[in-house]
Amino acid sequence: MAQAAAKQQIFIWEGANRQGHKIKGEVGGKNLSMVKADLRRQGIVPLKVRKKPKSLLGQRKKKITPKEIAIFSRQLATMMAAGVPLVQAFEIIGRGHESISMQEMVLKIKGEVEGGGTLAEALKQHPRQFDPLFCNLVHAGEQSGTLETLLDKIAMYKEKTEAIKGKIKKALFYPTAVVVVAFIITAILLIFVIPQFEALFQNFGADLPALTLLVLKLSALFQEWWWAIFGAMGGAIYGLMEAKRRSQKINHLFDRLLLKLPVIGEILNKATIARYARTLSTMFAAGVPLVEAMVSVAGAAGNSVYTQAILRIRDEVSTGTQLQAAMRSSQLFPNMVVQMVAIGEEAGSIDQMLSKVADFYEEEVDNAVDALSSLLEPLIMAILGVLVGGLVIAMYLPIFKMGSVV
């Protein structure tokens, strides 16, 4: 079935509808005759049908982003709610998407469903775009006959999680930007500006201040070894990211250090709790058993410290421990979150309580990121001012010294 879907090609067609109006578009199909038959079934008389030509340079296929999957989820949920048949919904979404990669993926999913497969099975053929959590929720919707409702919940879940990711990226961007901009400006001054003063100081005829000598030595170092300095920094960053990706121990250590950073660590903790609550709430609402749901929740945590803790919570819950007790023993969740879960367990409304927790912490993250942005804007100016001002003062100290002697 997957092989059949993989053989689909994109065809460009022109035809006439029932009113006689000429229309055109693109559609996926295994061959020319099947595409024509499919168009006729839709009430379109095909006039011209041909394979979509490939560019001489090859079609540029961009990586499908999580944001595009979130938009796809909302489009599919909206069309299902409007009563559009599933296969036709895929046709409309695929045909109207600008991304070639998204077009091909959606049309392949359409081919799988048309061939008799379930939507969950079709999505599992694309694990990079649709994680086990997404597929499990779709499967639960198909089994319970509530696919339309579940697709709406999935769309909301994807939108909320992508919004949280965007806020985290924004929070991490500012400190990174401060460091990068400060380093680049300092390097430019040391390589191009300071040497002009050095030529002036050669005929100074007196001992230079210690700060000036230090800056001149740094300038000479950057002028001679700038390629090694930039290369070493780039290599160190690349090596650290590769080590984080390949080694679970380094990844765990890196994640633990991030959570302990001032300000940033607090934002990351709140964001992870919000993601945990949102994911578990969505799984509960879909009727997924708790122990099974915790596996998907752990995978969606986004931080290895929380991932390991959630898996331990799952093990405790599987032996009969209450969820709130297992969460309290992990010592990662604030008392308010634990108490909300405890109330939810007693009232039989865990999904609603977790949804409220997610809403609260998502708002907390939003406020914290805005506060961080407001704090860092003047901080960036202060850091750049100190760096540039320090270099300027170091260069003008000898001139001031010469003026005092005269």
TrEMBL record:
PROSITE patterns the UniProt entry points to: T2SP_F
Ranges of residues in domain Type II secretion system protein GspF: 72-195, 277-398
Domain of life: Bacteria
UniProtKB keywords: Cell inner membrane, Cell membrane, Membrane, Transmembrane, Transmembrane helix, Transport
Keyword Cell membrane applies: yes
Membrane topology: Multi-pass membrane protein
GO terms of biological process kind: protein secretion by the type II secretion system
Residue ranges crossing the lipid bilayer per the database entry: 172-194, 225-241, 379-399
Location in or out of the cell: Cell inner membrane
Sequence similarity: Belongs to the GSP F family.
Protein name per the record: Type II secretion system protein F
UniProt source species: Nitrosococcus oceani C-27
